[in-house]
Design goal:
Radius of gyration: 24 Å
Oligomer: single chain
Strand order of the largest sheet: 2-3-1-9-8-10
Distance between the termini: 35 Å
Shape: globular
CATH class of the domain at 2-222: Alpha Beta
């Protein structure tokens, strides 16, 4: 796990200043505190910061191939590198190190871009082929590891693991993209199809880019995708056995490390399953850690403790309170772009706790997306069944009218909050799911925006890319399309961004065994009844793990990594909530209406409405824009 950065002149191959590449890489020192290196040649420069996990002393980067014809900087882990190495050696390849980086070099020389399909892992890398004078940029299947790109005015493309690496380049323009603000206010993060800065892009998950000197950069090419078009056949017992095999395969493959290894344990189904399978495969006690809250309603440490005792793990826990988020500037600085998933706070704290004893930690991320574990997926599944009975010509007028007149009741029990359901049923499945995912719908956003942002946004709506993704998904049903969107849109933009930045901020490598691509591909083939049954999402996984875990862990209501923002903004952070209406960056820019910001702060503090998530969005946007030092 590391940080990478570099410069490539796709026009005339001008000399690259190694000090410039070094500054870009050093901006990522937190990702790789164990070593650094820079390599330059006419028209290209590669920089690296290393976090040593495998072959601790023998794999410095940038690394050359044995024949010196290729050089690479690599961020991530290749879990099947030993098997690949053996295959390559049979074909005549030679190796000087014992790590996975050199295997990628040899795989490129044997198979070219086709090498990606053979790599089982999480990665973002830049490989320069000195003979072909090509730069090969690639990102893993799900986007576990990030890669930012920017074309610069001198005819070069700069790249880095985080935006702060690009910000170290003096030619990068620091102009915010108003469409990214629209995206952010809808989803709480800036999706992978956009960046907060104009001219900055993200290489999409499962894509590569092949650059050559003297040629304009082509568009990225997709090398992998998940498909929901096929259905697995077999009895529940057979499918359960296959799932268990895939779960074990994902966990054990990610337990390879030359440093201490542990696991995050929340007490939910996913992290508990990972710990259970780790304990099954390990001779030593699993090192587990969890974070709790000083608000009892959202604290899950009791469940985590129950699982830790069941598997005799070496368990540690810590409680988070409002005082832990005083340094909002640090949280904003970790992400560079505005990021409003409030579970980033406990995720950062659990990473800090884990790093005190281990250098690698396995997480439970990915199962909800792949196996239909989110409540919104279950609601969407039911809504799709209703859509199947009623034609659009009837649904639109009837449910649209009900949705408009029904009162919004965030305070009421879930069964009485029918407004969103009615509005969703009046729309297509893709439109309805976009509504379910959005923190703020389009009318609510418009009420907050100032004239400047409304003008610059024009006809664009943040929901449009998600709707298009679902409408063209390789899927057989509405549930398939929703899960596809979660894997392609939500997962890399929110979940994996959160885990990557918070873990890397403290020099910890986080691994996601439930995102093993073989496991996800199998999960995507499961019949809907094996994913959702009654009110249970992720049904087959829960059924399968009954052999290991108690029912009160498997079948209790899903809670997630919840942060008590609503209470904090009415207590210790009330002043912060009121302060957003005075923000020059949000108001004087013309992006937001001052009176609207003041109104939602007072409504929240007085308990008229719960605006906790929106207030957190605005606070983090303000902090992030300040950290970016925007210029005209």
């Amino acid at each position: 796990m590391c940080g990478i950065a570099g410069i490539f002149h796709y026009g005339t191959p001008k000399p690259v200043d190694p000090r410039r590449v070094e500054r870009m890489a050093d901006a990522l020192a937190h990702r790789g505190p164990d070593g650094s290196g820079v390599w330059t040649a006419p028209g290209v420069g590669l920089g690296h910061r290393r976090l040593s996990i495998i072959d601790l002393a023998g794999s410095p980067q940038p690394m050359h191939s044995v024949d010196r014809r290729a050089v690479i900087v690599f961020n991530g882990e290749i879990y099947n590198y030993r098997a690949l190495r053996a295959e390559l050696e049979v074909g005549g390849a030679r190796f000087h190190t014992g790590g996975d980086t050199e295997v990628i070099l040899a795989a490129w020389q044997r198979w070219g871009p086709g090498c990606l399909e053979r790599l089982d892992g999480m990665f973002a890398f830049a490989l320069y082929d000195c003979e072909r004078r090509q730069l090969f940029l690639a990102r893993d299947r799900f986007g576990v590891k990030p890669l930012f790109l920017a074309r610069l005015s001198d005819g070069s493309m700069a790249f880095a693991s985080e935006l702060k690496g690009l910000l170290a380049h003096p030619l990068l323009r620091r102009v915010a993209d108003p469409l990214a603000v629209e995206d952010y206010m809808t989803w709480g993060y800036v999706p992978d199809h956009r960046s907060i800065l104009k001219g900055v892009e993200k290489l999409p998950a499962g894509h590569f880019l092949l650059l050559e000197h003297g040629r304009e950069p082509p568009p990225p090419r997709q090398w992998w995708d998940v498909s929901f078009e096929h259905r697995a056949k077999g009895s529940t017992a057979d499918l359960s056995a296959e799932l268990l095999h895939r779960l074990r395969e994902g966990v054990t493959s990610r337990m390879v490390a030359d440093v201490p290894l542990g696991a995050f344990l929340s007490g939910g189904v996913d992290s508990s399953s990972v710990v259970a399978l780790m304990a099954e495969a390990s001779r030593d006690p699993v090192r587990s850690c969890s974070i709790g809250f000083d608000v009892e309603a959202v604290d899950e440490t009791g469940y985590a403790r129950q699982v830790a005792e069941l598997f005799a793990t070496d368990h540690r826990e810590r409680v988070v309170s409002p005082g832990d988020i005083v340094d909002l500037d640090r949280i904003a600085g970790i992400f560079d772009e505005p990021f409003a998933d409030a579970s980033a706070l406990p995720t950062l704290r659990v990473c800090e706790l884990a790093r005190e004893n281990v250098k690698v930690a396995l997480s439970g991320d990915g199962a909800d997306e792949a196996l239909a574990g989110y409540r919104r997926q279950m609601f969407h599944h039911r809504e799709e069944q209703a859509r199947g009975f009623l034609p659009q010509a009837l649904r639109g007028p009837v449910f649209g009218t009900l949705g408009k007149v029904w009162p919004k009741a965030d305070w009421a029990p879930r069964g009485l909050r029918a407004k969103t359901t009615f509005l969703s049923l009046a729309e297509s499945g893709a439109q309805g799911y976009a509504r379910a995912l959005a923190i703020l719908d389009a009318p609510s956003r418009a009420r907050l925006y100032g004239e400047g942002l409304l003008r610059e946004r024009g006809d664009y709506r943040a929901e449009n890319p998600l709707i298009a993704l679902m409408e063209t998904a390789p899927a057989r049903s509405g549930l398939d399309a929703a899960q596809y969107a979660d894997l392609k849109f939500w997962l890399p933009g929110d979940i994996l961004t959160k885990v990557d930045r918070t873990s890397m901020a403290v020099g910890l490598e986080a691994r996601e065994p439930l995102l093993d691509h073989r496991l996800v591909s199998f999960a995507a083939s499961l019949p809907e009844r094996q994913r959702i049954r009654g009110r249970q999402g992720k049904w087959l996984m829960k059924h399968t793990m009954e052999r290991c875990l108690p029912r009160d862990i498997l079948y209790r209501p899903k809670q997630g990594f919840v942060t008590p923002l609503a209470e904090w903004f009415r207590g210790p952070l009330a002043g912060t909530a009121r302060g957003i209406a005075a923000s020059e960056r949000l108001v004087d820019s013309g992006w937001f209406d001052r009176r609207a910001l003041a109104r939602i702060a007072e409504q929240h503090i007085s308990r008229q409405y719960d605006h906790g998530r929106v207030l957190w969005q605005l606070v983090m946007l303000d902090k992030s824009l300040a950290g970016l030092d925007l210029r005209g």
